[in-house]
Amino acid sequence: MQVHSHTSDGLAKRNALVLACAQALGGSSPAIVVSLGGLVGQNLAENKELATLPVSLLNLGLALGTIPAAMLMRRAGRRIGYIVGAGVGLLGGCLAALGIASFSFVLFCLGTTIIGMYGSFNQSYRFAATDAASDSFKPRAIAWVMTGGLVAGVLGPQTVIWLRDAVQTAPFSGAFLGQAALALMSMVVVSFLRPVPVGIAPKAGSGRPLSEIVRQPRFIVAAVAGLVSYALMSFLMTAAPMAMVGCGLPIEAAALGIQWHILAMFGPSFFTGRLITRFGKEQVAAAGLFLIALSSAVGLSGIEIAHFWATLILLGIGWNFGFIGATAMVIDCYRPEERTKVQAANDFLVFGSVAAASFSSGKLLNAGGWDTVNWTVFPPVVIALLLLAWQHKARATVPA
């Protein structure tokens, strides 16, 4: 167990604020890709079943980038790693814009994949915020970073609305140039990150084998809760913009729906950490999964703007509780010197499933419609809730 004096939380709070700002900039990238990826895919792909492939590749890039990002940060440190990651995001945005301008679906997909790799650096911000934090501050440090997504929730969709027609000869490419500019700005922000002092930083090359850690029941349950929360969120969010447009609603309504969704994803972060401290990690994660199921129930009730937006808002809140709760559970499963490899393994599992979910979402929407997409949500939620209930009962029976 990592124990710090409360004075060390001054550094943790400073770094959490820096990372929250970086999250505000970097977190806008998925919003831009999700809002436009399927629509651009429909325009560029000959096979319309591949329309959501750019969004799926965003998530595949997230999965593929987790381990290289972890290795780079283990060797060069968090700050250098995040600066390199921002450079990756800059490259991805430029390639995506070039793919649209040159009518190349392959190049556009390459761009969204690289943007996803940028996201693999951004996703570790929540773990980086805990590096110098006391045990009592860790859940709040994670939540602080996630609040940066509130700005991203406005910035990403507004970038789509403001810049989608900036390049008259290549509609939507301007939004991806805007994404590249935001990545460049984040490169400056992360340069203010301070390293963890030697007395707090874990020793390299020690700890248990990864295979032993990931076989722990608590890690398995935490990974499943995070995986289901994130995969189902991506599953519904990927399909929603195309479903809205397919139901005759305007693109602006779809983009604003994603904006409300992202605000709902990160808005609760102001108090999620405190809820975890008061009620427990498993309980908060379970509440999140229940809200995700409720969002699908609303999605099945109608196809007006209000139904779609309510679905996306409930989905965002559910993701926040489920994912932050699961992240806090993962932190319990490793020692300080084991953090890098366990964090990378967890994120690889989560974002690998997210990539599969977003790709299958497009296929299901094309084959069975919006109702089929929503009905698919319930079985994995039930499985994750049963595992959380089992883990809670086991911990109550045999104290850790």
Rough outline: globular
The total of beta strands comes to 0
Mean pLDDT: 86
CATH superfamily: MFS general substrate transporter like domains
Cα end-to-end separation = 12 Å
Q: In DSSP terms, counting alpha (H) and pi (I) runs of 4 or more, how many helices?
A: 17
Helix coverage percent: over 70%
- Order of helix and strand elements from N to C terminus: HHHHHHHHHHHHHHHHH
Mind summarizing the main beta sheet? none
What is the architecture at the second tier of CATH? Answer: Up-down Bundle
Radius of gyration: 20 Å
Your description of this structure?
The protein is globular. 78% of the residues lie in helices and 0% in strands. It has a single domain (6-397), classed as Growth Hormone, Chain: A (Up-down Bundle), CATH 1.20.1250. By secondary structure, it is mainly alpha-helical. Keywords: Membrane, Transmembrane, Transmembrane helix. The chain crosses the membrane at residues 51-73, 80-98, 104-121, 141-163, 175-196, 217-237, 243-263, 284-303, 309-331, 343-360, 372-390. InterPro entries: MFS, MFS_dom, MFS_trans_sf. Residues 218-400 form the Major facilitator superfamily (MFS) profile domain.
